[in-house]
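Lab notebook, design round three. We kept the backbone fixed and only want residue identities now. Task for the bench partner: fill in a sequence for the structure below.
Input structure tokens:
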């Protein structure tokens, strides 16, 4: 077999193909679209992008609800919404899927590159990256978050290069200028950069920990780059407001009582919680077994990543990016023997590669499958009746359906959606929570002059409205129920 083909069908090439096909194993039932189409934010994200590209003006006021219409609001992830919108315009739901898949594959490539740069051991890098994919599976979906983690990977590469004497750190300021327009995770990158500078302020060895002090020239450069990076954060269409956004959001009480699963603490009874425990334990055992010395930088990074992951499950993705290159260094030369080109089996490797590629192609969801998956999470069948009977009215809607209605029922403004900042600031969340918890529900509906309601079946508020005079069921299926208020009921709420 020619040498070129032997390289194409080499063992490392086979591992790479397996790795890049791994999202089709790590994601929940990719072929049917289950899980992938669940994210409720993607719909208002692409509506935002549509408004931006059609009007050529950045959104500065809330425009999709009747409860907070006209209130100041900034589109904090405007740049990462555009690829999803363009994908949707080109290929519909499949376009959304392919944009997501491209971002995920770039993340995988970035983690693999970081692992290999530290170890030059492809086997160890493959295993560590595969573990990172398992961590990332908690956030694989139609997420703008993926673009934030891509920026974080670039930062980790620039930091590692600087530590090794290859100075590309000057690329950080333009990276932060891009990052702040993509996603609020720039603040995570800034925190890690501060830790990176702090790791070189000491010099010495403490047991298995060592630190090397920055030279005056290095420290001066790092501080200047950090200051320039902070300054570049203001290169955005919203100025200081976008810089302050993640801090303001964290401090705001906002969506108390509507806590997305990914913002909860790690549960060690779940797969991802157990995975985090196994990786941390493995790092500890391998460090003790090899008597390896940890750089202070790695220790600080690992501590912050683990703390963030324990606090909020969404940061398990971050933990995978930070911990797995360190794990690859521990695995290198211990778990695997060095790669021997002479033992290559090109025909076998090629057959395995073909099998993985065929699996990925077969499990790429069709538009029909993705649209069917939407019906598992959103009121797809109820929208036509909503448009027919309630267009332009004042609709009380289920919280997670708001974004879907913003895109698919755009003639009817929503009561609420998953943009927690604007609704939390103006008390809409409190009204929503009280209404669905049957705490003065009818009074809240009356005060907001609600004339229709779209709710999941078998919920307390749906049960109440079915038994409340003046309300009737306009449409119902096994998933959603649409209520309308009778003319008498509307007059009663207008003239109590």
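Proposed sequence:
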């Amino acid at each position: 077999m020619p040498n070129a083909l032997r390289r194409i069908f080499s063992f490392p090439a086979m591992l790479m193909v397996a790795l890049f096909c791994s999202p089709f194993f790590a994601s929940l039932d990719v072929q049917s679209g289950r899980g992938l189409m669940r994210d409720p934010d993607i719909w208002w994200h692409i509506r935002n992008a549509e408004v931006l590209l059609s009007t050529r003006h950045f959104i500065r006021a809330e425009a999709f609800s009747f409860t907070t219409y006209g209130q100041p609001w900034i589109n904090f992830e405007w740049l990462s919404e555009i690829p999803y919108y363009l994908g949707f315009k080109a290929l519909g739901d499949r376009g959304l899927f392919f944009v997501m898949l491209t971002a995920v594959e770039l993340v995988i490539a970035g983690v693999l590159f970081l692992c290999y740069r530290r170890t030059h051991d492809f086997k160890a890098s493959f295993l560590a990256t595969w573990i990172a994919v398992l961590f990332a599976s908690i956030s694989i979906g139609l997420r703008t978050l993926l673009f934030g983690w891509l920026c974080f990977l670039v930062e980790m590469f620039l930091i590692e290069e600087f530590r090794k004497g290859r100075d590309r750190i000057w690329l950080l300021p333009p990276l932060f200028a891009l990052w702040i327009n993509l996603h609020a995770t720039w603040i995570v990158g800034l925190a890690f950069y501060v830790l990176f500078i702090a790791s070189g302020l000491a010099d010495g060895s403490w047991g298995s920990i060592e630190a090397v002090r920055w030279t005056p020239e290095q420290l001066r450069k790092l501080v200047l780059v950090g200051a320039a990076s902070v300054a570049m954060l203001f290169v955005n269409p919203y100025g200081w407001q976008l810089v302050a956004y993640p801090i303001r959001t964290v401090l705001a009480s906002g969506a108390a009582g509507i806590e997305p699963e990914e913002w909860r603490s790690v549960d060690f009874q779940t797969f991802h919680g157990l995975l985090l425990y196994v990786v941390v334990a493995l790092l500890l055992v391998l460090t003790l077994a090899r008597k390896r010395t940890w750089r202070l930088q790695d220790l600080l990074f690992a501590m912050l990543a683990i703390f963030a992951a324990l606090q909020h499950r969404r940061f398990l993705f971050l933990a995978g990016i930070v911990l797995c290159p360190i794990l690859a260094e521990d695995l290198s030369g211990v778990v695997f023997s060095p790669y021997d080109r002479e033992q290559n089996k090109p025909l076998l490797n090629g057959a395995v590669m073909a099998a993985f590629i065929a699996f990925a192609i077969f499990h790429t969801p069709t538009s029909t499958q993705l649209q069917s998956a939407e019906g598992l999470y959103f009121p797809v069948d109820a929208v036509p009746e909503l448009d027919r009977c309630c267009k332009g009215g004042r609709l009380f809607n289920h919280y997670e359906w708001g974004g879907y209605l913003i895109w698919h029922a755009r003639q009817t403004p929503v009561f609420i959606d998953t943009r927690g900042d604007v609704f939390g600031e103006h008390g809409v969340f409190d009204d929503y929570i009280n209404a669905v918890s049957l705490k003065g529900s009818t009074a809240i509906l009356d005060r907001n002059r609600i004339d229709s309601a779209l709710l999941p079946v078998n919920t307390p508020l749906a049960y109440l409205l079915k038994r409340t005079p003046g309300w009737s069921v306009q449409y119902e299926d096994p998933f959603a129920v649409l209520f309308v208020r009778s003319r008498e009921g509307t007059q009663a709420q207008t003239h109590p």
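Keep this in mind before ordering anything: Residues 378-494 form one domain.
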